[in-house]
Amino acid sequence: MEEPGPAAALPEGWGRDERSLEALSLAGGGGAAAAGRQLPEGRRATLASALELEGTVLREGRLTQFVANNLERRIRLSGAPRGEPPAAGGGSSIPAIDPGALQDVVALAGQVAAQVDELLRNVHCGLQALTALSVGCIQTYRDGVESLGEAADLSIRAMYALVARCEELDRAMQPVPALAKRIRDMKGTLERLEGLCK
């Protein structure tokens, strides 16, 4: 952007009108800058000093940069209606709080609190039911394990008793082979006697 033309002072309401440096130079110079003519140094200095009151002016050759002070306030003023006065201290005005809206919020908060209480009660009842079911399952498992242990113990005892009876029976059956041999001998003797008697 080229350097702005001269101006005696900033136009009134400059912050609201949001005029650029080019518009100010055109307004102050009577269209001289648009025509490409060089402006007197004094009038250029006057415009620069007027801009320096509203912000910071930086020059780099033929390029002039302007940074406005209190830019946030100027943006708010530019968006405000024309007839509305600016807020005091440059801050945004806070609208009044509607009592009816507050009552609605309080009522809704009460409803939410009641629903949360009901939800917590339902969750508590559900947790109690799950806990009772878990306790019942654990007790059943414990009883099953105890019963299985008792049954296994009884089975082991019965097995030992059977082994002992088998050992006793084995000891009792030890004379049987000798008795069988004697019976065979007696049978052979009887057969020989029968052969002699014929």
TrEMBL record:
GO terms for biological process: lysosome localization. InterPro entries: BORCS6, BORCS6_C. It comes from the Eukaryota. GO terms for cellular component: BORC complex. Residues 95-194 form the BLOC-1-related complex subunit 6 C-terminal helix domain. Pfam families: BORCS6. This is BORC6 protein. The gene is Borcs6.
